[in-house]
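To whoever is on call:

I kicked off a structure prediction for a single chain this morning and the downstream step that reads the tokens threw a length-mismatch warning. I double-checked the sequence; it's 44 residues and nothing unusual in it as far as I can see. Pasting both halves so you can look.
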Amino acid sequence: MTSLLYPVFNGLKYNVCFFFLMVKCAFMRILIIFNYKVAFFIIN
């Protein structure tokens, strides 16, 4: 039973990690864009 569920659990774990990585990347991109806008306003 456990040997049957193990690959499913492993796949789920990888999907969760991938999801968190995508959220982190999107958040970093938003932060970078926001920083560029702030810097642009400060320069002008």
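Update from on-call: the warning came from a stale cache, not from the record. Cleared it. Sanity check on the structure: The helical segments are 2-43.
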